[in-house]
Amino acid sequence: MTMVLALVEHEEGRLAETSQQALTLARDLADQEDAPLAAVVFEDDDEQVGFELASYGVTELYRVEHDRLDRYAPDARAATVHQLVDEHDPEAVVAPGSDRGHDVLGRAAARLGVPMAANCVEVTAGDGYEVTRHRWGGSLLEHARIDGSPALLSVAQHEVAAEEAEDGGSLTEHSFTPTLADSDLLVGIDRIEESDEEGVPLEEARVVVGGGRGVGGPEDYDKLEELADLLGGTVGASRAAVNEGWRPHDDQVGLTGAKISPDVYIACGISGAVQHMVGCKGAKNILAINTDPEAAIMENGEYAVVGDLHEVVPAITEAIREG
Ligand SMILES: Cc1cc2nc3c(=O)[nH]c(=O)nc-3n(C[C@H](O)[C@H](O)[C@H](O)COP(=O)(O)OP(=O)(O)OC[C@H]3O[C@@H](n4cnc5c(N)ncnc54)[C@H](O)[C@@H]3O)c2cc1C
Fold first, then answer.
1. Which of 38, 43, 139, 271 is the most buried (most CB within 10 A)?
2. Which of 221, 238, 286 to mutate to test the pocket of ligand 1 (most atoms within 8 A of CB)?
3. What is the mean pLDDT of residues 167-192?
4. How far is CA 200 from the centre of its chain?
5. Minimal CA–CA distance to 163: which of 22, 258, 62?
6. What pLDDT is stored for residue 139 in this prediction?
7. How far apart are alpha carbons 9 and 31 in whole angstroms?
8. Residue 177 CA, ligand 1 centroid: distance in Å
9. Region 240-264: what's the mean pLDDT?
10. Under a CB-based contact definition with an 8 Å cutoff, are residues 233 and 285 in contact?
11. Concatenated DSSP letters for 226-259?
12. How close is the Cα of 1 to the center of ligand 1, in Å?
C-alpha cells in the first residue's frame, strides 16, 4: 500500500467545504489501510492551503505546476491524475462530489480504464472496497463493491461531517509537472463572468428561503428576499419556479440543482416533490409554508404552517423585526 490520494478544491487559500468532507473520508480510508494521505492541488501558490491540508491529516502534498494550467481544464487535470497514479500507485483516489470533482474523476477513470464509484458516504477497505453510495440524489443508498486499482471514489456532498485530524501536523510538499498534450487543453474555462447575484452562495447559506410555484410570479420573491436578508440567508427556488423564468437556474434546489445544508430551510409554496427534497434533505430544520395540508413537504418538515405564503412570510418578517 502506497497512499490514498485526495483531489481538493480551494479558493483564496481556503479549502472548499466539500473538499474538507472528502478529506475526512479519505483520511478514514488511509487509516484503515495504514497508509499516508496525500493531496493534489492545482492553481495554487498560497501556502495557507498547505497548513489547512496538514490539519486534515495530509502528509504529502503535490502542487501541480504547468504554465498551461492556469485555468480549469478537466482533461488536463485527469491527465495529471493519471500520471500521478502511474508514478505513485495509490490504492485509492478520492475527490469531492462536486461538479469539478466528478468531471475530473470520471475522465481519469476513462483514461486509467478503472471503475469509479460516485457519491460515496462510507467506504470499507478489504478485498476491494465496500462502498455505500447515493443513488437518485440520495433517495436510495446502494451497497456495492468496487474492484480495480486504484479505486476511484467521490464523496457525496454534505454527507460526511468534515473533521480535522487529531494528530494533524506537518506535510512534505512536492512540485509535480505533468506532460500535457494540446488535446488535454481543448476543454477549459475561457473566462469567468461574475453572477449578478449578491449575498451568500446557496450551498453555504445557514438560512435558505425557498420559493416554488406557489409564490405565483417573480415580483413576489421580494417578500422572500426581505426575510432572507433579515436572517442573513439567501433565496432558493424549485424547478417549477425556475422553469417559469421567475428565478435563475443558480437558485434551483434539488436533484438537478444545488444541494443545500442550512440550519433552517423555509420552503414557501413548494409541494415537496422527491426531486426537490433530495436537494434540501441536508437542512437541519425545515419550515414548510403551504396552503395544502396534504402537500408532501408538510410531512418532511419539522415545522409547518398551513396558510397563504403571501400573508405568512410578511408576518414572520414583521415578528422578527419587532423582536
Ligand atoms: C429528472 C427530474 C429532475 C428534477 N429536478 C428538480 C430539482 O432539481 N428541483 C426541483 O425543485 N424540482 C425538480 N424536478 C421537478 C419536481 O418533480 C417538481 O415538479 C417541482 O419540484 C415542483 O415545484 P413546486 O413544488 O414549486 O410546484 P408545485 O408542485 O406546483 O407545488 C406548488 C405548491 O405551492 C402550494 N401553494 C400554492 N399557492 C400557495 C400559496 N399562496 N401559499 C402557500 N402555498 C401555496 C401548493 O399547495 C403546492 O404544494 C425534477 C423533475 C424531474 C423529472
1. 38
2. 238
3. 92
4. 15
5. 22
6. 79
7. 22
8. 48
9. 94
10. no
11. HHHHHTT-EEEE-HHHHHTTSS-GGGBBSTTSB-
12. 49
Residues 6+ apart with CB under 8 A from 224: 209, 210, 211, 215, 235, 268, 313
Pairing relationship of beta strands 140-146 and 14-15 according to DSSP bridges: unpaired
Q: Look at residue 197 in the predicted model and tell me its pLDDT.
A: 67
Q: What's 64's DSSP letter?
A: E
Q: Using the structure block, give the residue that is written with the C-alpha cell 490504492.
A: 91
pLDDT at 137: 78
296 three-state secondary structure: helix
Give yes or no for residue 241 having a pLDDT over 90. yes
Confidence of residue 13 (pLDDT cuts 50, 70, 90): confident
Segments making up each domain of the chain, as ranges:
4-185, 202-322
Continuous H helices in the chain: 17-33, 47-55, 74-88, 99-112, 221-230, 239-243, 274-280, 296-300, 309-322
pTM summary value: 0.75
Task: Give the Cα separation of 66 and 180 in Å (integer).
Answer: 9
Q: How far is residue 109's CA from residue 150's CA, in Å, rounded to a whole number?
A: 9
Ligand 1, atom 31, lies closest to the CA of 271
Q: And the C-alpha cell for 261?
A: 445544508
Taking domain 202-322, whether its CATH number is 3.40.50.1220 is answered by yes
Choosing among 1.10.287.130, 3.40.50.300, 3.40.50.1370, 3.40.50.620, the CATH entry for 4-185 is 3.40.50.620
Atom of ligand 1 nearest to the CA of 211: 26
Ligand 1 pocket test: pick from 242, 249, 256 the residue with the most ligand atoms within 8 Å of its Cβ.
256
- Residue-wise pLDDT tens digits, 207-223: 999 999 999 999 999 99
For ligand 1, what atom is nearest to the CA of residue 272? 25
Residues with CB under 6 A from ligand 1: 212-214, 238-241, 252-257, 269-271, 273, 275-276, 279, 289-292, 295, 308-310
